[in-house]
Design a protein that fits this description.
The structure holds two protein chains of two kinds. Chain A is an alpha+beta fold. Chain A folds into two domains: 179 residues, Regulatory protein AraC (Jelly Rolls, Sandwich), CATH 2.60.120; 111 residues, Homeodomain-like (Arc Repressor Mutant, subunit A), CATH 1.10.10.60. Helices cover 44% and strands 18% of the residues of chain A. Chain A contains ten helices and ten strands. A six-stranded antiparallel β-sheet of chain A has the order 1-2-9-4-7-10, covered by helices on one side. Chain A has a four-stranded antiparallel β-sheet with strand order 3-8-5-6, with no helix packed on it. In chain B, a hairpin with a 3-residue loop joins strand 14 and strand 15. Chain B is 40% helix and 21% strand. Chain B folds into two domains: 242 residues, 2-Layer Sandwich (Nucleotidyltransferase, domain 5); 217 residues, ATPase, nucleotide binding domain (Nucleotidyltransferase, domain 5), CATH 3.30.420. By secondary structure, chain B is of the alpha/beta class. The chains are: A alpha+beta, B alpha/beta. Chains A and B meet through helix 4, helix 7 and helix 9 of A and strand 3, helix 1 and helix 9 of B.
């Protein structure tokens, strides 16, 4: 395998891959100043350490990476080497351009990827709440990088499909690993508190069970069972519980209108809010408000 | 067929259960809510979330288990955790979250009061040990540290008061829950003027006092509709979880005590007299007029074993925490009584009864080169139960105890229950299977008495059957007592060091 391999947008090999900005496998024998300056970019950047020790800064935090470690840098995050140059060693990386998105924490791969829109939303959510951009000892990622490189070099039949598949696979691997890091089998109550906090911080979001499960690093079925046995509720019912509790607090403050309350607490519409609220409490939201706040 | 529904507003969850009139449990359901810790000493809960969780669970339970079978609900009986404080404003809207029983913010207020003569007088009058848990000190804390909230407060409620007010419109507190506030004179059954004065409030800032059998007005129409309950459904205000657990365990009259083993634990007796403990080590809560539930609580029961499992358990084999704890207990069973001379003081979270020392810490004492992990497991369980035993011993200075009944999550491990029988040298009874939740069963007995099925609570309590008994083994007791003697001496000898290490830990 070649020791220096660098593809950049515009080169012939990347003609079929407009979403790949850069792909590299690089062995660093001598230090070159400014070879890795701290800067932010609009791309998703993934780095894998084959060999050596690297002092990097990601999103203003310092990290030391060793062989087998992987760093994932979300678009907009600042990243670079502590001393602005690549240390001695061997690194693979890929920079990917994602589709323009409506909200900063959303992320869409593009038509080349087989990940569904809802999976992409979930991935965006994991990345936005994730505060450890470095995964340690993730050797499978190294194998994926190697395979991609040989596909680029050999260009056998089906190589473009294969490379896109490998990128999907790399992203899936990273996501599963990240979400596993968030859970601890030892302490579901604590894990659940973190989830509860994430739900409350973004109550207006249309949470799906898949998204919640991924946040705590469990499969959907196992997650639903755990939540049910821990709280007595299905995940979505637990969420509705929080929504209505928060809505009640707002209803008791006279200056917020009912539609705003409905949307702020994650109901589709004031109608949806009213129906759910009445079913549980017997009151419509406005009746409830009238009973609880005397005219002033 | 008629049925009685009990609703427990517990530390972390609502538990709903239904019983037929013979006391057979027809079904149960629970719904959990979180405790928030905005600061390390703070433990708060969202009153609206508790209310909605209660409503949701109750409604689903009725729809799934009660209405389809055409049961007719005679009454709903409530019980709740003690010591909660919820300030509300002039419109009845909560001023922030409820302060839960486990909240420790009022440490300084409690210490100050304990050192005053007033502290002794108030303990005698109210039966509640002077401790940050008691609403007396929590309200004093609000007065000293959150003046805006204190000034805006129309009433200081208990969480049960709030839930019942939402359902019925009335602000009420039963004598049981009130007797755990540190504000009620348990002899005169009136709010204690000196306590109110100390907290800076007047009587009108507190809910109206009523007996545990009291029925407030009907459910509001809207809730009758949403729950599908008729207008005639009776509401019974009920008591506290601690009092109900004691009643539900059949502990009434001479010679009986109950041990609760959850995250925290307690040893309790019921009697006609207040236990006046000179060292203020025991609480006395009112069950009904002239009947007191007395005892002592520990901070360090299941929570300490859970800590051990999380730190040292083998999660490669175990699929979750419970399974991990079971494996640990199996290991502990392979070690002889006394853990090869290894002794554990379980005071990881300071301790309440009987030593009442917030700075007490955990200690493994007597480690030698032959000790293995399994000795440490066993020593940990023995230490937790020595602490429970030390509460029992304190109670025995006032009351004779001939047998124990045990309830709570950890009671379901036979290893623990047998060890308790051996350490106490008394037979231990336990109720297993459906209907073994003694808080719910206590509430059933209270309701059944109120609707005339029993003459009084004493008669009701006698119906409690406790089939499974653990008989103490004399030779084990002898060994345990040799270790317990060292356990007790260690506490005394280390008291100075507890202070010093607490200071160091405070700084780090």
């Amino acid at each position: 395998m070649q020791n220096q391999f660098l593809l950049q947008r515009g080169c012939r090999e990347l003609e079929l891959f407009p979403h790949i900005i850069e792909f590299a496998f690089k062995k660093i024998n001598t230090i070159q100043f400014d070879s890795l300056k701290k800067e932010s970019s609009e791309f998703l950047r993934i780095y894998y350490i084959v060999d050596g020790r690297f002092d990097w800064v990601i999103n203003e935090e310092q990290y030391i990476l060793y062989p087998g470690d992987l760093a994932i840098i979300f678009p907009g995050q600042r990243f670079g080497a502590e001393k602005n140059f690549l240390d001695i060693g061997t690194v693979s990386w890929i920079h990917l351009e994602l589709q323009k998105k409506e909200y900063p924490d959303q992320l869409f791969m593009g038509t080349w990827s087989r990940l569904t829109d809802s999976e992409c939303r979930t991935i965006g959510r994991i990345l936005s709440v994730n505060n450890s951009p470095v995964l340690s000892r993730i050797k499978e990622a190294g194998i994926i990088f190697q395979t991609m490189q040989s596909e680029f070099i050999n260009q056998e039949i089906g190589f473009s499909a294969r490379i896109n598949q490998l990128i999907d696979e790399l992203i899936i691997l990273i996501m599963r690993q990240l979400s596993k890091q968030n859970t601890s089998r030892r302490d579901f109550p604590q894990t659940f508190m973190k989830l509860e906090q994430a739900l409350r911080e973004n109550l207006s979001h249309q949470w799906t069970v898949e998204e919640m499960a991924v946040l705590v690093g469990l499969g959907t079925t196992a997650f639903s069972e755990k939540v049910k046995s821990f709280t007595g509720f299905s995940p979505l019912n637990y969420l509705i519980n929080i929504r209505i509790s928060e809505a009640i607090k707002m209803l008791k403050r006279p200056n917020i209108n009912v539609t705003d309350i409905a949307l702020d607490t994650g109901f589709y519409s004031s109608q949806h809010f009213a129906t759910t609220f009445k079913k549980l409490t017997g009151y419509t939201p406005s009746e409830f408000r009238k009973k609880n706040i005397p005219d002033n | 067929m008629d049925c009685i529904i009990t609703i427990e507003i517990g530390t972390g969850a609502i538990r709903v259960a239904a019983f037929d009139l013979t006391g057979t449990m027809l079904g149960s359901a629970k719904g959990a809510y979180p405790t928030f810790h905005a600061k390390p000493d703070f433990s708060e809960q969202d009153p609206e979330q508790i209310f909605i969780t209660m409503l949701y669970i109750l409604k689903n339970f009725l729809n799934e288990k009660i209405h389809p079978k055409k049961y007719s609900v005679v009454c709903l009986c409530f019980s709740s955790a003690m010591h909660s404080v919820l300030p509300i404003d002039k419109n009845g809207v909560p001023l922030g979250n409820a302060i839960a029983w486990s909240d420790n913010r009022a440490k300084k207020e409690a210490d100050d009061l304990k050192n005053m003569d007033l502290g002794k007088i108030l303990y005698k009058a109210t039966g509640t040990p002077i401790h940050p848990m008691s609403p007396l000190n929590k309200i004093t804390w609000l007065k000293n540290n959150d003046q805006a909230r204190f000034a805006a407060t129309r009433k200081f409620l208990s969480i049960k008061t709030y839930i019942l007010q939402q359902l019925t419109g009335e602000y009420l507190i039963d004598y049981s829950v009130a007797s755990a506030t540190g504000l009620l004179n348990i002899h005169t059954l009136k709010w204690e003027p000196d306590a109110l004065k100390h907290a800076g409030i007047t009587e009108d800032k507190l809910p109206e006092l009523v007996p545990v059998f009291y029925s407030p007005s009907k459910l509001k129409k809207e809730y009758q509709h949403s729950l599908g309950l008729p207008d005639k459904t009776k509401i019974i205000i009920g008591s506290s979880d601690g009092c109900m657990a004691t009643l539900g365990a059949g502990v009434y009259g001479e010679g009986k005590a109950t041990v609760t083993l959850e995250e925290s634990g307690a040893v309790r007796v019921i009697g006609k007299e207040v236990l006046q403990d000179e060292k203020q080590r025991l609480f006395n809560y009112l069950l009904t007029e002239g009947n007191y539930v007395s005892g002592g609580p520990t901070n360090n029961a299941g929570s300490v074993f859970e800590w051990y499992a999380m730190q040292f358990g083998d999660f490669k084999k175990a699929f979750d925490l419970e399974n991990c704890m079971e494996l640990l207990i199996d290991e502990a069973g392979k070690v002889p009584v006394g853990s090869g001379g290894l002794i554990f003081l379980p005071y990881l979270q300071g301790e309440r009864a009987p030593i009442w020392n917030a700075n007490a810490k955990g200690v493994y004492f007597g480690l030698n080169i032959k000790h293995e992990q399994r000795h440490m497991i066993r020593a940990t369980i023995e230490g937790i139960l020595y602490a429970i035993y030390s509460i029992g011993k304190t109670l025995e200075e006032h009351r004779q105890i001939k047998s124990l009944s045990v309830n709570g999550t950890y009671a379901s491990f036979p290893f623990w229950t047998q060890m308790m029988a051996d350490i106490f040298d008394k037979p231990v009874h336990i109720k297993q299977g459906p209907g073994s939740d003694s808080v719910a069963f206590g509430s059933f007995l209270l309701s059944a008495t109120e609707i005339g099925l029993y003459k009084n609570l004493e008669e009701a309590a006698e119906t409690v059957e406790l089939p499974d008994s653990f008989i103490p083994k004399q030779q084990h007791h002898t060994i345990y007592m040799k270790h317990f003697a060292i356990f007790e001496r260690l506490i005394t000898k280390l008291s100075g060091e507890f202070e010093s290490i607490a200071e160091l830990q405070q700084d780090s």
